């Protein structure tokens, strides 16, 4: 049986020092300003069993787990980014932002 012996080696630790050059990504939004994103406002949630879900009919009410005056959550790609209060914006709902997360 041949035995292979491996000698340990010492690796030199490389120190990271910022060079002060241009960043990889610039914070200039001019390149992204035309990109549209979709925001969602989450009012609350409800939990019910499948029997009740399938039994829902027009005019039924589903109570949410949120108080009427509680802030709602603004989400971008499913992630919360802000909170605020619902307001009337003409004939639509709007969101007055009260907190950036």
UniProtKB/TrEMBL annotation:
Keyword Nucleotide-binding: no
First-listed, main subcellular location of the protein, grouped into a coarse class: membrane
Domain (Flagellar motor switch protein FliN-like C-terminal) ranges: 32-101
Topological category with respect to the lipid bilayer: Peripheral membrane protein
Signal peptide: none
Pfam families given in the database record: FliMN_C
SUPFAM superfamilies: Surface presentation of antigens (SPOA)
InterPro entries: FliN-like_C, FliN/MopA/SpaO, FliN_T3SS_HrcQb, SpoA-like_sf
Keywords for this protein: Cell membrane, Cell projection, Chemotaxis, Cilium, Flagellar rotation, Flagellum, Membrane
Subcellular location: Cell membrane
Annotated family: Belongs to the FliN/MopA/SpaO family.
PANTHER family, A to Z: FLAGELLAR MOTOR SWITCH PROTEIN FLIN, PTHR43484
Name assigned to this protein: Flagellar motor switch protein FliN
